[in-house]
Amino acid sequence: MTRLLRTTVLTMTLLCSPLALSAAFAESPDLILRNGEVITMDPANPQAQALAISGERIVAVGSNQDIDALAAKDTRVVDLAGKTVIPGLIDTHMHAIRAAQTFDGETLWLGVSSLQDGLDVIRREAARRGPGAWIAVVGGWHPRQFVENRMPTIKELNDAAPNNPVYVQYLYDEAFLNAKAVEALGITSETKFQPGGYPELDAQGKPTGVLRGNIPAFSGLSNRILAAEPAQRLESSRRFFSELNGLGITSVIDAGGGGMTPPQYDTIFQLWQQGGMSVRVAYRISAPTPDNEAASFKDVLGYMPPSFGDTMLRFAGLGEVLVWKMHDGEQIGPGFKSSDAARGELLEVLQLAAARGYQVEIHAFSNDAGGQILDIVEKVNAQTPIESLRWTVTHLTDGTEQTFSRMKAMGMSYTVQDNMFLRGQDVAGKLGDEAAEILPPIRKAMDLGLVVAGGSDATRVSSYNPMIGLQWLVDGRSVGGSPQRIASDRLTREEALALYTRNAAWVMRRENELGTLATGRIADLAVLDKPYMTMPVEDIHSIRSVLTLLGGKVVHDAAATR
Fold first, then answer.
1. CB of 522 within 8 A of CB of 80?
2. Domain named Amidohydrolase: which ranges (predicted)?
């Protein structure tokens, strides 16, 4: 049969297929993945057995029989042996650019289940790095993940690494330094860090090794401790993005945040220019310093057209910190108050963003902050409608129906993170068990018709592992087992996956390219080592990708599918 005749016959077969392949036939696919459970997240064709890829695009999705018929001699065919395939995961709120540059310099307590094991990690790192090298655990952990359910003591850090400075940061609240670290940083009773940071003193007025602070203080301090040469930052970034690929992540929206001054973007720009990115990054920029934020944004944005960039690196507007005095940090519950000056500054920033057509993500951890911010957004929207810009509010741990309805009326979206996985007991302690069992109010937002998308807020306050987020969305259980969201507020597995795929692509304004496995979409996908839809929910956090594709190219291969 000639190629022309074969093409005609197969095209007619596809068009008439009752399985609704909706395939745009290519001459011969480069790659076929077959004999799998393909979760497409495409409402028109939610499940399939196989798909075909040509170049960077998916050209057909359907049954084994139909997709096999597209294979040519030069088509690579991978038998998935029943493995699950999902669209590449998209984290809509990660501080990835910052985290990537310091990844190699950090020591991780992700998944460590006892404090003693955590101290052993420090011992091993001290031996590996050598005397005098910094050992820095910079967030992403919580004492409730440990069987001991407590913080480390300074003595334990001294004993674990007597010849190395050790820095252990807990969220943006406090940090623990051993004696070598206090000495290396020159901390005395008079030491002050950036506004809000100070050392705890004992009865004799000497530093205990415990630091108290806030986001600016700890951002500045961790940047100092983790300083590295440009070449080291570049290689560290490659490894971090490779780590994300191994978890099925193919795209992130970088949320800017504390410490992200212009020089902090040099590494990602260099990696992009070299063609070395294995994760798509849409990046937002935050106000680098408190006060005069509107003037600062005007200066920077004059050189930044909306959506500037390409499919790998793209400018995604402003966020998450627009005006520092309108930023409520991680305040749990009511009580946030803003000044007339801060609200006026935010109004000026948002007017600028709306007039120039920029996307915006606004941090509001509490509903009180969210309400005050929406007062200003509504004023802007009355002058310049923002619906087409898809602005979003992020966090909203205790958001109300009224708040979500106001957002919906302006076409805004809601990006939610798995902070409650680590901080559920903190919320319960502030607001009570009943409140903690329904927060964050994801189901309420969804029922009101808001687009809700998922993320991690990694790496300082949570893990970058999206499987933890997926498990938490489904079972609602915080670390340690409680609190647990009530059953009616938990998501199904498909709903949870939508937050990290289809909905996340909408927030990126790339829903016609990413987030679903359908004909014509970019072939970003992950083949999983475990059956996400049927495995025990308590084990979802352990899922890894065995094969991750970015635009049809392999960026992670665990060799299990070869």
1. no
2. 76-556
Residue-wise pLDDT tens digits, 36-62: 999 999 999 999 999 999 999 999 999
**Alpha carbon separation from 153 to 118, 208, 403 (Å, rounded):** 12, 10, 42
Q: Which two structure tokens, joined as six digits, stand for 208? A: 């205990």
Q: Quick one: DSSP state of residue 554?
A: E
Q: How far apart are CA 515 and CA 455, in angstroms?
A: 14
Backbone angles phi, psi at 485, to 5 degrees: -60, 145
**CB–CB of 238/271 below 8 Å?**
yes
Q: Which residues pair with 135 in a beta bridge?
A: 166
How many beta carbons lie within 10 A of that of residue 488, not counting itself? 7
Ramachandran angles phi, psi of 476, nearest 5° = 70, 15
Structure tokens at 185: 């940083």
User: Which residues lie closer than 8 Å to 526 by C-beta, 6 or more apart?
Assistant: 85, 86, 87, 88, 89, 248, 250, 545, 547, 548, 549
Whether the CB-CB separation of 392 and 111 falls below 8 Å is answered with no
Structure tokens at 541: 């956090």
CA distance 32 to 51: 6
| Amino acid residing at 47 | Q
- Summarised one tens digit per residue, pLDDT across range 131-152 is 999 999 999 999 999 999 999 9
Cα 296 to chain centroid, rounded: 26
Nearest Cα neighbor of 167 from 114, 227, 122 is 122
Alpha carbon separation from 96 to 11, 166, 186 (Å, rounded): 43, 23, 30
- Cα-trace Rg, the chain: 24
In single-letter form, the type of residue at position 316 comes to A
The residues pairing with 139 across neighbouring beta strands, listed in sequence order, are none
The predicted model scores a pTM of 0.94
d(CA 429, CA 386): 37
For the chain, the farthest-separated pair of C-alpha atoms sits apart, in whole angstroms, at: 92
pLDDT in tens, 271-299: 999 999 999 999 999 998 889 999 999 99
Residue 242 CB neighbours (<10 A): 15
Quote the tokens at residue 354: 């709306």
Helix (H, G, I), strand (E, B) or coil at 327: coil
Per-residue burial over 357-378, b if 16 or more Cβ lie within 10 Å, else e, is ebbbbbbbbbbbbbbbbbebbe
- Phi and psi at 195, nearest 5°, equal -45, 120
Residue 168's DSSP bridge partners are 137, 176
Token pair of 481 as six digits = 């087992």
> What region does 515 belong to: left with phi over 0, alpha with psi -120 to 50, or beta?
left
Q: Which residues sit opposite 280 in a β-bridge? A: 251
One DSSP character per residue, 263-326 reads GGGHHHHHHHHTT--SSEEEEEE--SSSS-HHHHHHHHHTT--TT-B-SSEEEEEE-S-S-GGG
pLDDT for residue 16 is more than 90: no
254 contacts 94 by C-beta, under 8 angstroms: yes
Contact present, 240 and 207 (Cβ < 8 Å): no
